[in-house]
Write a structure and sequence with these properties.
The protein has 18 helices and 20 strands. By secondary structure, the chain is an alpha/beta fold. It has a domain of 308 residues: FAD/NAD(P)-binding domain, CATH 3.50.50. Helix 1 packs parallel to helix 16 and helix 16 runs parallel beside helix 18.
């Protein structure tokens, strides 16, 4: 007797929606969450300045008109406390907490072939079984620390931004170090620069960033948004990134430079990702077009930073603007104009070690009260690697994905029956407005379960050929994009994760755009799930995969 029909791992944005769908579906299901409460990234990331880079009203769930009508987003780009309140509101409104178990870290998930069941081992010593496991682990849920000698010696406060203390941190008059200048660091630095005694930023590689241009949402504007929700979500559905921002369809070189500059000036002053996603499509594919636009952004940085030497250090030289996800900022560059803020380029003077009182570079020693590690994440596959996941024949997912993930549609894996990933690597979630992508993935996975129930199938697994075909398509999408050259989590780069240094691309995200992705996965479903092998459960609980329909796929990715 199985404990559950479906076990969902992770109670973040994807896991909350997945359990809602399973409850409506009538499945006996539960969510296991390692944290003390729900929220995923919005539970953990409580650092100052943490907020959406998606417009709030495009980030919320779209499945319930009543929910849309009653929730008032207070800011165009909502902050972490409000985001967490929203997710708690959703869980309470639909009575989802009773289906969730917290402080439940899953250490292992092994497929039992004889019983056609998944057996999970939890950190509290329990074991649970289920026919299906759905992984909603999050894209950026495993923080990484730098590999610095002496990190345990520091006598002051130190922590990764992911673990910013819930009770807050006293910053006034403190000497603070922030290591890193990625998306998280950019938010933290801008937010705390005027609240600390001194702030020293240690930068290895600068990132491009553009203004967030956040603002409050009035009652009148929110009422208008509610009236336009159908239009808003329709726009998100037809754009490559799942945002309101539609690309400029004119050819880059067909538009006079003066007109291009006018467009860029307007986009730079508008809210959100418009400067990235309302731009000419060639900035993603044409090196000359990208170089011209990158120089435009560089010049805007120079205008905002008073010290020319500091400005030049904040301008990336190893990649162009927009070839990796662009951090959005509020007065980030202006922070470096403050007398209490100092930038240290550790590509020139590397950090040698952490000391009892601070940090020492090859040039000098620094004393600090607080050291903040804004050093990124083991992105996309890190959370999968932290669970001992084993499929047929005892094959470990960690070994299968050692050189990078291989999937079918980013949601299933050959050799791992009844394992689903609505927001998995190579799916339509990682490179898009996340909730728009996860709703697509969750809906598809739930529909698959319904198909299996209707046809008396208890087991589903993609063929090796279908997995290979999809993975090759994902690789092909990279070949057209300048991002293939970037040191980015989109390409699996993280110098703090052994084996993930630059030199080998991992094809983590789908670059074909949301409309193409949705069209492809819908074709698979409409065809009776070609590329997926189904099996009924016989008297022994074991079906014959090879004998069932769906062993060959005729779906062509276009």
């Amino acid at each position: 007797m199985l404990d559950y029909e479906v076990i969902v791992i992770g109670a973040g944005v994807a896991g909350i929606y997945q359990i809602k769908q399973l409850v409506d579906f009538g499945a006996k299901a539960t969510v296991l969450e390692a944290a003390p409460d729900l929220g995923g990234t919005w539970y953990w990331n409580r650092y100052p300045g943490c907020r959406f880079d998606s417009e709030s009203y495009t980030y919320g769930y779209s499945f319930s008109r009543e929910l849309l009508d009653e929730w008032h987003w207070r800011e165009r780009f909502s902050s972490q406390p409000e985001n967490l309140r929203y997710l708690n509101h959703v869980a309470e409104k639909f009575d989802l907490r009773r289906h969730m178990q917290f402080n439940c870290r899953v250490e292992a998930a092994h497929y039992d072939e004889a019983a056609n069941a998944w057996r999970l081992s939890l950190g509290d010593g329990r074991t649970l079984s289920a026919r299906f496991v759905i992984l909603t682990l999050g894209l950026l849920s495993i923080p990484t620390l730098p590999r610095l000698e002496g990190m345990d010696r520091f006598k002051g406060q130190s922590f990764h931004t992911f673990y910013w203390p819930n009770e807050g941190v006293e910053l006034a008059d403190k000497k603070v170090a922030v290591i890193g200048t990625g998306a998280t660091a950019i938010q933290v630095i801008a937010e705390i620069a005027d609240k600390v005694g001194t702030l020293t930023v240690f930068q290895r590689r600068p990132n491009w960033a553009a203004p967030l241009n956040n603002s409050r949402i009035s009652d009148e504007e929110m009422a208008d948004i509610r009236r336009r929700y159908d239009e808003i979500f329709a726009t998100c559905a037809r754009t490559p990134g799942g945002f309101e921002h539609e690309p400029d369809r004119r050819g880059f070189w067909e538009v006079q430079r003066e007109e291009r500059l006018k467009l860029w000036d307007r986009l730079y002053d508008e809210p959100g990702f418009g400067i990235w996603l309302r731009n000419f499509r060639e900035i993603f594919t044409d090196e000359a077009a990208n170089a011209e636009f990158s120089e435009y952004i560089a010049e805007r940085i120079r205008r905002r930073v008073k010290d020319p030497k500091v400005a030049e250090k904040l301008i990336p030289r190893d990649h162009g603007f927009g070839v990796q996800r662009v951090p959005l900022e509020t007065y980030y560059y202006e922070a470096y104009n403050r007398d209490n803020v100092q930038l240290v380029d550790i590509s020139e003077t590397p950090i040698e070690c952490v000391t009892e009182t601070g940090l020492r570079t090859t040039e000098r020693a620094f004393d600090f009260d607080i050291v903040v590690y804004a050093t990124g994440f083991d992105a996309i596959t890190g959370a999968y690697d932290h669970i001992d996941i084993r499929g047929r024949g005892g094959e470990t997912l960690r070994d299968k994905w050692n050189d990078g993930p291989t999937t079918f549609l980013g949601m299933m894996i050959h050799g791992f029956p009844n394992l689903l990933m609505p927001s998995g690597p190579q799916s339509g979630s990682a490179s898009t407005n996340y909730p728009r992508g996860i709703e697509t993935g969750v809906n598809w996975c739930t529909k698959l379960l319904g198909y299996m129930r209707d046809h008396g199938y208890d087991r589903a697994e993609p063929t090796a050929a279908a997995e290979t075909r999809w993975t090759e398509h994902v690789k092909q999408m990279y070949s057209m994009m300048l991002m293939r050259k970037a040191k980015s989590w989109f390409t699996g780069y993280n110098s703090n994760v052994p084996g993930h240094e630059q030199g080998r691309i991992r094809y983590f995200v789908y670059n074909g755009g949301a409309p193409k992705y949705v069209s492809t996965i819908n074709k698979v479903a409409d065809s009776g799930y070609e590329g997926i092998v189904f099996a009924p459960t016989d008297a022994t609980g074991h079906g014959d995969l090879a004998a069932m329909p769906g062993s060959e796929s005729r779906i062509q990715v276009v």
